[in-house]
Amino acid sequence: MTALRRVPWRGIALGALILLAAPFAFYAFRFGLEGAGFGALRETYLIQPAAPFGNGAISLHMILGGALTVLVPLQLSPGLRRRFPHWHRGAGRLLVAGALLTGAAGCAFILMRGTIGGMWMDAGFLLYGALMMLAAAQAWRFARAGRFVPHRAWALRLFVLVLGSWLYRVHYGLWYLATDGLASNPEFTGTFDSVQNFAFYLPYLVLLEIWLRTRPVPPELRTTACEKG
Ligand code: HEM
C-alpha cells in the first residue's frame, strides 16, 4: 500500500497524456510550417493563394498550438515545479504568450475568412479562442500578484482549453469508429458537428469547475508562495 502511494501517478498520467497528444501536436506543427512556406504544402482549403494574412494567422496558430499541446502538461508536474522553479516560471511565460497568440491568430482567421462549418462553428471557435486568451491572461496576472490559489484555477482552465483542440479530434475519431460518421458531414454542418463546436471544451470546463469547488485546495498554495518571477 505504502509502495503504491510512492508511485508518481500524476507524473505517469501527464507523461501518458503527452505521448497520446504528441502525434496531433506534431501534425499541427508541421501543417503550420507548411502553411508558412517551409516544405511542400499538402492539399488544403485553409491556405489560399493571395490571402497572406489569413494564411499567416492559421499557420501561426497551428505552429504555436502544436507546441502548446505538448508543453502544457509539463507545466502541471509538481515535481518539475518544485525542483526547477525557474523552468516553471520561464515555461509559464512562454505558454501564456503562446496561448494569447494562438487564440488571437485563430480568432483573426475566423473574422477574416470564417470557418468551413459556418456561423455555429465560427461562434464555437471564437468563444474557444476568447476563453483561451482570458485563461492565459488571468493565470499570468494572478501569478504576478502572488495569488496562487486563483493562479492554479486559471492555469488548470488553460490546460483544459489547450488540450481541447486535441480532444476535438479524439471525439471525431471515436465517433467515426463507433458510428461511421453518423450526423456528421464534410461541411461540418451535421448535428454531431454542431454539438462538437462547443463540446470539445465546455463540458470539460464544467467538470473542472465542479472539481475545483469540491476538492480542498493544496495547503502549500495557501501558505507558501512560489517566488514571483
Ligand atoms: C491550442 C491548440 C490548437 C491546435 C494544436 C490547433 C490546431 C489546428 C489545426 C491542425 C488545424 C487545421 C485543421 C485540421 O487539420 O484539423 C486548425 C484549424 C483551425 N483552428 Fe486550431 N488549433 C488550436 C487552437 C485553436 C484556437 C484557440 C482557436 C480559436 C480561435 C482555433 C481555431 C481554428 C480554426 C478557426 C481553424 C480552421 C477551421 C476550418 O475552417 O477548417 N484553434 N487548428
TrEMBL record:
Signal peptide: none annotated. The chain crosses the membrane at residues 12-33, 53-74, 94-113, 125-143, 155-175, 195-212. Keywords: Membrane, Transmembrane, Transmembrane helix. InterPro entries: DUF2306_membrane. Pfam families: DUF2306. The keyword Transmembrane helix applies. This is DUF2306 domain-containing protein.
